[in-house]
Amino acid sequence: MSRVKYGVFFRVFFVFSLMSSSVQGQSVKRVCDTIHYEFIQNKIIIPVTVNGVTVKYIVDTGGQTGTDWENAQKMGAVGTGASTSISDLNDKRQRYQIAEVRDVWLSPNYQLNKMKTMVLPVIESFRSLGVVGILGGEVFAQSVVTFDAREKIMVINYPYRPDRLKVTDGMEMFGNDSHHPVVNMDFGGVEKKVVFDTGADGFLLMNSSSFEDIETSGKGKKVARAFGINGIGLEGVSHPVEIDKVNVEEMIIAGKKFSNVESLISDRGALIVGIDLLKYGKVVIDYMRNRFYFFPFDVGVTDMRGMSKIWNVGILPINERFEITTVWDSMKDVVSFGDQVIDINGTDITGFPMSQPEIDRVMNAIEGDVAYIVILKDGKKKKVEIRRE
């Protein structure tokens, strides 16, 4: 990945205690629709019309469909009496009511008569992106979806596969009620099940247990350490923890080899390949036949060394201000966890809304690997150099 954003603002990976299919009543006719999507803050955003109301959703193959309550009301959502308990990126659990909306058009010819959705609180991060929620894989359960990042398009095929796409060319996708695309990947001889998650920033997010196996095999090592917060989930921020950055010597997906893949370690249950996979090839998910395809843009080995640089401090909205919430070892004698940040590389952020995407936008716009921040501590301003490492 060109940049792993370790604080993913709502992330992005949900663990479900209850999940039900939201695709019902799909009309039987041949569909091949191309959707030109927006790509904002590493999120795929598409227009959707629900009961005559046109809105925008994030496409999140690793999540479950959810809509903020204000827009769910506008869509005429009706409660089902059911609820689901989910964990956000910080493993904070919450139960949300399930509602049903009707007459959902995901593309000009792909319609769902009904769609089930979690009813979510109004989330500032969603508002800043201009979206009302997320679309999980279950809404595409009766289709074949192609992601082409070079063209910024999704193609929906139903009920047939795209022309010249052979079942034998794909990988087995381990089906489950969540409709998450789970496939086997090889990490230097260590095989692991991985979720392809378009809602997750970056290329690879390891979990602790998987990395231990890779490290034991001699194919991985820890390269840096930090202390900080994983990010802002649906239920707020997590407690600060020790964070490791690791290097994995080899990763193979559908025959395509990546070397020197860097990742942050998460204690969450899933091993994730995120949105940055689309930088290196097309992905096709055949939800109906449980097949996953990856067609790389380049056939040789891709060296990922230096492709996952991250800033050596993390900044998030905390306590109605912006604070340093992650400190990597190279900065532990320069700044402190909780220091207030008032300026990022010449941009005064004191008037910004309390939104992680706003900070991400400023940080991502910085050219080069060196910048500065201004912190305010004990009434005094201090200019500090920061780096991508």
Structure characterization notes:
- The protein has 389 residues and is mostly beta strands.
- It has helices spanning 69-74, 124-129, 208-216, 356-364; strands spanning 15-16, 31-36, 38-40, 43-50, 53-59, 66-68, 78-87, 93-105, 111-120, 133-135, 144-148, 153-158, 171-172, 182-187, 190-196, 204-207, 220-228, 232-233, 236-237, 241-253, 256-266, 272-273, 281-286, 291-296, 302-303, 313-318, 321-328, 340-344, 347-348, 370-377, 380-387.
- Strands 14, 15, 16, 17, 20, 21, 22, 25, 26 and 27 form a ten-stranded mixed beta sheet that branches.
- The two termini are 13 Å apart.
For this structure, the quaternary state is single chain
CATH architecture of the largest domain: Beta Barrel
> What would you report as the Rg, rounded to the nearest angstrom?
21 Å
- Beta-strand content bin: over 45%
| Tally of helical runs | 4
**Cα distance, first to last residue?**
13 Å
What do the pLDDT scores average to? 88
Number of domains: 3
State the gist of this model.
This protein is mainly β. The chain contains four helices and 31 strands.
Compile the SSE list and pairings.
Layout: E1 15-16, E2 31-36, E3 38-40, E4 43-50, E5 53-59, E6 66-68, H1 69-74, E7 78-87, E8 93-105, E9 111-120, H2 124-129, E10 133-135, E11 144-148, E12 153-158, E13 171-172, E14 182-187, E15 190-196, E16 204-207, H3 208-216, E17 220-228, E18 232-233, E19 236-237, E20 241-253, E21 256-266, E22 272-273, E23 281-286, E24 291-296, E25 302-303, E26 313-318, E27 321-328, E28 340-344, E29 347-348, H4 356-364, E30 370-377, E31 380-387
Parallel strand pairs: 5-10, 6-9, 15-22, 16-21, 21-25
Antiparallel strand pairs: 1-7, 2-12, 3-4, 4-5, 4-8, 6-10, 7-8, 8-9, 11-12, 11-23, 13-24, 14-15, 16-22, 17-20, 17-27, 18-19, 20-21, 23-24, 26-27, 28-29, 28-30, 30-31
